[in-house]
Design a protein that fits this description.
single chain; 270 residues; alpha/beta; Rossmann fold; six-stranded mixed beta sheet; 8 helices; 9% strand; binds iron/sulfur cluster
Length: 270
């Protein structure tokens, strides 16, 4: 039996809509985030998740990318029956193994993971403009594809949320290290919470194996960080964790825009 998350579709915006009333925003969100960081840091990640849920009365959204970190966080959300919306950004270019893991995970936990898709018109315009694999041509075209297939769908998924849970770890990239355990994302107007911030990949793997949590079959074939199929390859021994992402780019920060510091107007809507 699948959990039926409260979701309605608007033809224009496809916003996620919760039955909960909009939460009051803390008067000093940066101060609130700093206080939460002090309170949450000594706790184990499952307790961090529970504590943040108790501290907030608004929507909390977890974006699941089916990496090992995400699988572990999803396991804890289900195990503790936390009131957290779980969404995934289906770019349309994922590996067959990722779709298989998605289905296996839903079966195992009996819970639907809500898929957010790119805007149809924006996707058609993108492919018409730069071709179906235009992202190989330049960094600008790659970022345009990531924007249509990932970043804008993420904006919709997070609209109106009070907090965003991610599987980011500090030792993955410099950008992620700067994010901290929890912080206030000015551009999106929400708290960004990384419960595995101070964990290593080895610790995550050990926890996944200890609890028998399913993971992507591609990991056994040398894939470390797994994203879209045309933009991910296996990493060689000794290469960095995200070296298999957009490997043809020489100067890359190996981010698709989801975790980059953003400037500009707030995305959050009432
Ligand atoms: S990872 Fe590649 S296919 Fe996926 S959205 Fe970015 S450029 Fe497009």
């Amino acid at each position: 039996m699948f959990d039926q998350t409260l979701i309605t579709e608007d033809a224009e915006s496809s916003l996620l809509v919760s039955s909960a009333a909009p939460a009051a925003e803390p008067k000093d969100p940066h101060g609130f985030a700093a206080a939460q960081a002090v309170a949450l840091t000594p706790l184990a990640p499952p307790e961090r998740l529970r504590a943040l849920r108790q501290a907030l009365d608004g929507r909390i959204v977890f974006t699941h990318g089916f990496g090992i970190e995400g699988q572990l966080i999803f396991h804890w959300i289900c195990e503790h029956d936390l009131d957290v919306e779980v969404v995934t950004l289906d770019t349309g270019r994922l590996f067959p193994e990722t779709y298989a893991l998605w289905a296996e995970t839903e079966r195992r936990y009996g819970r639907r993971i809500h898929a957010i898709y790119p805007n149809q018109l924006a996707l058609e315009a993108l492919v018409a403009r730069q071709g179906v694999d235009g992202f190989y041509d330049s960094k600008e075209k790659r970022e345009a594809c990531c924007s249509v297939r990932k970043v804008r769908p993420l904006d919709r998924a997070l609209a109106g949320a009070q907090a965003w849970i991610t599987g980011a770890r500090a030792d993955q990239t410099e950008v992620r290290k700067d994010a901290g355990l929890i912080g206030y994302d000015e551009s999106r107007g929400l708290l960004k919470f990384n419960p595995l911030f101070d964990w290593t990949r080895e610790a995550v793997l050990a926890a996944v194996e200890a609890d028998g949590i399913p993971f992507n079959a591609l990991h056994a074939r040398g894939f470390v960080s797994i994203g879209c199929a045309p933009c991910t390859r296996a990493s060689a021994a000794g290469e960095s964790e995200r070296s298999g992402r957009w490997w043809w780019e020489q100067d890359g920060h190996r981010e698709c825009g989801l975790h980059l510091p953003r400037s500009g107007a707030r995305v959050r809507t009432a």
